[in-house]
Design goal:
single chain, alpha/beta, two-stranded antiparallel sheet, 13 helices, 16 strands
């Protein structure tokens, strides 16, 4: 059975993931840290990134060699002003002008700089001087961009740790720490006025470290789990990523800033760590990053922001061997310095680079990919005929159905009809969306009973489920 699963996943990756997902994935980015002494030259890194479906790169600084290497690639570039730059940026408008003239003007627009982050996790740094100077520094950078006629083209923001929240569970109760008070109000006012995003660093990995129950691990890794119910909204959350992002959404909404977009500046999972660290492993890292990418590709969105994927920057492109702290801090890289994959999460554009192992990964504890598989007794399976549809069996859990949606929509099948505004979006529930998604895979991948199994959660039916303007394709249509 394992061999069959691997072959089926590999088939879908080659046929659909590579052909259809490599392009138009502007929501997938990566962090490019440089606290290392063994990194490949920027030109090689630029070529590596172009060989993937990564469309955006976040730098923590503004290294001109990297910015130049990414010129004329179309890749979006986020550059950063360091925390140490904030006092000068805040107090001296000319310093901000010089910063823009040095780090932006010589490279733009050939290098597609899209965002400048002023500082990193400043509000939770404990440095009250930096906290009070943060918004004035951002405003001076914005003014400098305006002076260079770039104000409407490049955004200015800053990056926050999840600890800016006082409450995050359930997600609907998300609220900012009142200790940030007027600074947070001013910052959100700036974001609202300039159309700049609110950038956060959600790490389900850290949530798991403080709660190491198996069900928490499954919830963090997008694996089948019982979910967590938000009694205020009646929403059942099936993964930690959505819960964390929606907690930020709720906090922004409660402050009257529902118009401010969210960007995930960092998220990832280490593939190894010290002996006393709980959670790091290749299996867990592959599961988290691989399933997160599939979730983003599905365009399901989060419960409070359906139908779109939040721009998400994976952490990280490479390991940074000079970073201090526990071993896990130096083991987040998706690629090695020799440009080979640390492990595969399905980012490659090239079919020739597609591995023989699934990129919607499995762990020893539970399968994370809900994929079509050969029935135990193929001879007794329903035979596909014209006017046959693949639909969920009765009594299948929402957990299973949501996993089916994420798998299908994350692997290049056309799920636009079940996204907001689509002909099959209503009724807006998991069962209805899963029925459409599972059928579209069956009809597109081939009318074979093994393509309508979904871990025994689907069946073939001669009853046409189409309704109103929602048309379920079949062999006869």
């Amino acid at each position: 059975m394992a061999i069959i699963l691997l072959r089926i996943v590999a088939f879908f990756l080659i046929t659909f993931d590579v052909a259809n997902n490599a392009d138009c994935q502007s929501f997938i980015g990566v962090n490019y840290g440089q606290l290392a002494d063994n990194l490949p030259p920027p030109s090689s890194t630029a070529k590596l990134i172009q060989s993937t479906s990564i469309q955006k790169v976040r730098l923590y600084g503004s290294d001109p060699a990297i910015i130049k290497a990414l010129a004329n690639t179309g890749i979006g570039i986020v550059i950063g002003a360091a925390n140490g730059d904030i006092p000068a940026l805040a107090s001296d408008p000319n310093y901000a002008i010089n910063w823009i003239n040095t780090n932006v003007v010589p490279f733009y627009p050939a290098s597609n700089i899209i965002l400048i982050t002023v500082g990193n996790e400043v509000l939770t740094s404990g440095d009250q001087g930096l906290v009070t100077q943060l918004v004035p520094a951002m405003q001076n950078v914005q003014n400098a961009l305006n002076s260079a006629s770039l104000g409407g083209k490049i955004k200015v923001s800053t990056v926050h740790a999840m600890s800016v929240l006082k409450n995050s569970e359930p997600p609907s109760s998300g609220s900012f720490d009142p200790g940030f008070g007027d600074v947070m109000k001013a910052l959100l006012g700036f974001c609202s006025a300039t159309g700049s995003p609110f950038a956060i660093n959600p790490y389900p990995y850290f949530a798991y470290r403080s709660d190491t129950r198996p069900e928490t691990l499954a919830f963090c890794l997008f694996q089948p789990n019982e979910g967590r119910f938000d009694s205020n909204t009646k929403i059942k959350y099936m993964n930690m990523f959505d819960a964390q992002v929606d907690a930020i959404r709720s906090a922004l909404n409660s402050m009257g800033h529902s118009n401010v977009e969210i960007v995930v500046a960092e998220t990832g999972w280490p593939y190894k760590g010290d002996d006393n660290e709980v959670g790091p492993s290749v299996e867990n890292a592959r599961a988290y990053n691989g399933n997160l990418i599939a979730h983003l590709r599905s365009m399901v969105g989060t419960p409070l922001m359906p139908g779109k994927s939040v721009d998400t920057y994976l952490f990280a492109l490479y390991d940074e061997n000079l970073k201090p702290g526990p071993g896990s801090e130096r083991a987040f890289g998706l690629f090695k310095p020799d440009l080979t994959m640390t492990y595969d999460v399905g980012l490659s554009k090239s079919a020739s680079q597609t591995p023989t192992t699934p990129t919607v990964p499995t762990t020893p504890k539970a399968p994370t990919a809900v994929v079509p598989k050969t029935p135990a007794n193929p001879s007794t399976a329903p035979k596909p005929n014209k006017g046959v549809w693949c639909l969920p069996k009765k009594g299948v859990s929402e957990t299973q159905l949501q996993a089916n949606i994420d798998y299908v929509c994350g692997h290049g099948f056309d799920c636009s009809p079940i996204q907001p505004g689509g002909a099959c979006f209503e009724p807006n529930n998991v069962a209805s969306h899963a029925a459409y998604a599972m059928n579209i895979l069956y009809q597109t991948a081939g009318h074979d009973a093994q393509n309508c199994d979904f871990s025994q959660s689907a069946t073939l039916s001669s009853n046409n489920p189409s309704y109103d303007s929602c048309n379920y394709p079949s062999e006869s249509t």
